Amino acid sequence: MKTLNIALSKGRLSDLSIDFFEKAGIDTTELKDPGRKLILEDQINDIRFFLVKPGDVPTYVEYGAADMGIVGKDTLLEEGRNLYEVLDLGFGKCKMAVAGPPELKDKLDRFDRLRIGTKYPEAAKKYFEGVKGRQIEVIKLNGSVELAPLVGLSEVIVDIVESGKTLKENGLVILEEIADISARLIVNRVSMKIKNEKISKLIADIKRQL
Ligand code: PRP
């Protein structure tokens, strides 16, 4: 049998993803204590896990360096990669939303060229230009996005909201909801054919937990 390569997101989704594989009967001993290693193995089931930044999971899967991956829907919306999204895993739930000061509620149409601070420039463009047919100026940020409207860098932000605590503590509110986000299982299109037996079995083992 061919080795199955799975890319996992480091960070928020990592512990939840590991729990999930453990329940699906995978040996996660190495995964739970990776140290600085980037490839962790389950030799019994002949599976290798790659630990990568969330934004890189779809890249590894699209190019086939990884056969499968677990990644947030937010990253998939942003990356727009050519791959199969096979399962909603139901964890890592949050929303992608437009947020800003409460006084801008229902007033976004007043701006000729709304400035949007975001870690998700492509998803923001798809929503405003694609769905709403509006021109916007996207200002790409790498974190602490909520700061942007507070200091005049942008009018609003497009970001993920989980508990809502960050917005609340900075005096911001959700102005428009864009999408429901959760962790998704993704599969490379060619791997789905050539490693079908192994991938289908793992998907079935995972589905039993949903
Ligand atoms: C994310 C997101 C929000 C926050 C939302 O940032 O960009 O800032 O979490 O979570 P909450 O609704 O539960 O407060 P993250 O913690 O990943 O840090 P970052 O600012 O460095 O991107």
Mean pLDDT: 96
How many E-type strands? 11
**Largest sheet at a glance?**
6 strands, mixed
The CATH class label of the largest domain is: Alpha Beta
- Hetero groups: 1-O-pyrophosphono-5-O-phosphono-alpha-D-ribofuranose
Poorly predicted residue ranges: none
In short:
The protein has 210 residues and is α/β, with parallel strands linked by helices. It has helices at residues 14-23, 29-32, 57-63, 73-79, 121-131, 147-150, 165-169, 189-194, 196-207; strands at residues 4-9, 39-42, 47-52, 68-72, 84-88, 94-100, 114-118, 136-140, 156-161, 173-181, 183-187. α4 (73-79) packs across α5 (121-131).
Overall description:
With 210 residues, this protein is of the alpha/beta class. It has 2 domains: 4-92 and 182-207, 3-Layer(aba) Sandwich (D-Maltodextrin-Binding Protein, domain 2); 94-180, Periplasmic binding protein-like II (D-Maltodextrin-Binding Protein, domain 2, 3-Layer(aba) Sandwich), CATH 3.40.190. Helix content is 31%, strand content 30%. The protein is built from 9 helices and 11 strands. The chain has helices at 14-23, 29-32, 57-63, 73-79, 121-131, 147-150, 165-169, 189-194, 196-207; strands at residues 4-9, 39-42, 47-52, 68-72, 84-88, 94-100, 114-118, 136-140, 156-161, 173-181, 183-187. It has a 6-stranded mixed β-sheet with strand order 2-3-1-4-11-5, with helices on both faces. A 5-stranded mixed β-sheet has the order 8-7-9-6-10. A hairpin with a 4-residue loop joins β2 and β3. The two termini are 27 Å apart. The protein binds 1-O-pyrophosphono-5-O-phosphono-alpha-D-ribofuranose. The site of 1-O-pyrophosphono-5-O-phosphono-alpha-D-ribofuranose has 12 residues, from β9 and α7.
